Amino acid sequence: MDSKLNFRAHCKTIISKIGTQLNALYRTTASTWGATLLKARQLYLAIIRSSLTYGAVAWHRPDLKSKYSAKLLQTQQNTALRIVLGAFRRCKTALLHTEAYVLPLHLWLNGRIMLFHARIAKSGI
Asked: Across the chain, what does the average pLDDT equal?
């Protein structure tokens, strides 16, 4: 945890953890015998995106202009989507999100934060 509470240390820890998960995803989606697109997407959604967004309620603020954390983690999501789709490095990220039917990370985080706040408001806490 940072003393300034900007969660950069948290993001660096997540990025180091995601590196091993991306290697495992790369190995399971090999071109000759690997998982299909749907199975690889399911692996990404279940394992990697949940690791990327762990604790997002504490560190992601949709209203702030400085989205350092989301930008760092967006590059990890783009790398994972390139592995899932088998796309080239120069492929545009908007195309990756469209083909994989996955929202950009900051939009998905905004939705999750709003659902969290709605659930808290509904519970009366």
From this structure: 85
Tell me what pLDDT residue 66 has: 45
Of 76, 30, 26, 29, the residue nearest 54 (C-alpha): 76
The per-residue pLDDT for range 59-97, each reduced to its tens digit, is 887 776 546 677 788 889 999 999 999 888 888 989 999
Alpha-carbon span 106 to 63, nearest angstrom: 11
Q: Which residues of 79-118 are buried (b: 16+ CB within 10 A; e: fewer)?
A: bbbbbbbebeeeeeeeebbeebebebbbebbbeebeeeee
- The pTM of the full predicted model, rounded to 2 decimals, is 0.81
The Cα-based distances of 86 to 17, 29, 104 in angstroms read: 22, 9, 18
Helix 8-28 / helix 68-85 crossing angle, nearest 10 deg: 0
46, amino acid identity: A
